[in-house]
Hints:
Layout: E1 5-9, E2 12-19, E3 26-30, H1 44-49, E4 53-58, H2 76-89, E5 95-100, H3 102-113, E6 118-124, H4 129-135, H5 141-144, H6 146-150, H7 156-171, H8 176-186, H9 191-200, E7 216-221, H10 229-234, E8 243-248, H11 254-257, H12 259-271
Parallel strand pairs: 3-4, 3-5, 5-6, 6-7, 7-8
Antiparallel strand pairs: 1-2, 2-4
Amino acid sequence: MDRPTRRPCGGLHLDVRDDGPRDGAPVLLLHGFPQDGTCWSRVAPVLRGAGLRTLVPDQRGCAGRARPRGRRAYRLELLLQDAVALLDAAGVQRAHVVGHDWGGIVAWALAAHRPDRVASLTVASVPHPRALARSLTRSPQALRSAYVAAFQLPVLPEALLGPCLEDLLRRSGLPAADAARYAARMQEPGALTGALNWYRALPLSRLRTGPVDVPTTYAWGNRDPTLGRRAAELTAEQVRGPYRFVELDAGHWLPETRAGELAELVLERVGGTAAPG
Length: 277
């Protein structure tokens, strides 16, 4: 992927990789924790090869000029505003939206609250937020999600994660080169705190993500250690538009480890939906 350019988005300057033909259908790719936009480096070229334009930001907290202090600056409503502002800055009215991990949560919110800006939705790993909430009392999901509560603590998560993040990522199934790259990025001043503030802002957000009506594909890895089957299956109840659920024999890191399959799912979804830019 080409080097990113800085674009003003929601009062911040996000690093955005804007590649591919300008007349191609636009695809917005949103990364999660503790990734950056390079998580799509195996997916985006396939999309561009099919004639699509890809918009790949380093989201709030990751980009060097977009690390505001304090957890309130990472509320979901602000993350949503960033995505809309990015589309505005790129001159895109509607995009096919793809999200993984936390990027998936932003993608679900974008489809629910701004369907006028979303031509289609493809989410990897993370179920619809309502499905995830329901699963907490109907499955072992609460145990899988216990780390979210631990991340609410100040300072301590940074102290514990910082020295061992690369090793933890490798052991979770992330390829070694990706683990090293993300861990190095998180060593930049304020980067790990910015990334953790996405979790810390959860209790402060007033935005609630309801059902979505846009055409949606949800891909889930059945060996994901943090996101279980019950939440994945309940997601179907939260999509009122055309919907496809794809179970992969994979773990959590689908953009890095199942890039070809994920890219094909995006192309399939894009191909069935007109998306004027």
